[in-house]
Amino acid sequence: MVGNTFPYTVQDWLEDIELAHVNCIDGFALNVGREPWQIDRVADCFVAASRTSTPFKFFFSFDMSSIPSSTEEDIELLCKYLAHFGRSERMLHYSHGIFISTFAGEQSFFGQSSLDRAWALVKNRLSAVVRSPIHFVPSLFIDPGSFPKMKSLNGAFNWNGSWPVHLSSDSSRQEVEVPALDSDNDYVRNLKSRTMMSAVSYGFFTHYGIESWNKNYIYRTDNWLCVRRWEQLIAMRDQVDIVQIISWNGEYTISGIYVITDNELLDYGESHYIGPIKGAQPNSQDWVDGYPHDAWLKMSSYFIRAFKNGHYPPIEKDQIFVWARPHSKDAQASSDNVPRPENWHLTDDKLWVVVFSQAPAVVFMHGRTGVQEVNVRPGFTKLSRSLMPGDGIKVVMMRDGDAVAECSPKGFIFQGYTRVYNFNAFTASS
Questions:
Q1: Pfam families, per this entry (predicted)?
Q2: Do residues 227 and 98 share a domain?
């Protein structure tokens, strides 16, 4: 999200590009809003890219929840970005056109009589600026059944596809255990041969009160949500053209060749970041600071390679990845002006573990009530154990009497109380 990069320098962009590339990501989707300063940060991004030989790409994801779109003149802001950067060799070209996306836009009519005519006009205007076709794959929050009638679309992005957003307070326990993530099917069926962009995400918790953005809820991200989603998309990769990971400090994208990330104003505050915590936070420090997600980034590279290559690669190193919330779900906050988030009960007090094992091994998960011992095969294995207040994290992988990997992060204690509600994830790796 470019909206989180106000204090970024060219060096910050360069560090992010190189870190993403090392972890098998091939580009950033640049989510841009209405603020005039954002185009200057994008310029820094392109300067940074010019200073590296890393084959990194970019596309614009216009944030239509921010950018005005009621009149035809509002198209000028979109054109401005293409005029400045559209002819750069760093722009992502897809299916003979410059790839363009959005966040939202279902209410963007630009003075036209229909949504389809509006975006057809936008495409024509952008195409004239860059003298190239536009490959338009937006995230429109509309019924996918309307896609066949929309000639302006070259595809669509299922932004909400990675979270069980359908869960509600009256969901049965069985539904909560392993909720379905099957909304891609409607997109694939209605897009037919057009571009399908799916989403992967690692969590969602936001905690803003009515005096600010009034967003205070979680989506259930238990049961190794991110890994299950990767497994699903790897299995259906012949139906999915691009995967966008939500998020870096925003979102990233992968296709059979590309992996791209986007930058959006509330994304630190929505807890689904996967890149370094830096830049400008949208008043989310209470639940973001001290909760880096770099272990998720490190783990992602394995699944990215599997998606891109069509098969799971061999495990090259014994590794352990863990994540957990910092306090029990029913803990009462002692000094929080914002209530407990909606859907707080649709989660479990558990430690989620993924192990990468080169050969058969035994994994020991330590807790106050004892040690769980699990035999694992070569490959990756998903494990978990319950957490009780006072538990720390210690997971050890043993083979032939030797510890080949250990994850014992210092400073983490699962609490039965809290100062402010925090359903963000603490992550760590061996």
A1: Glyco_hydro_71
A2: yes
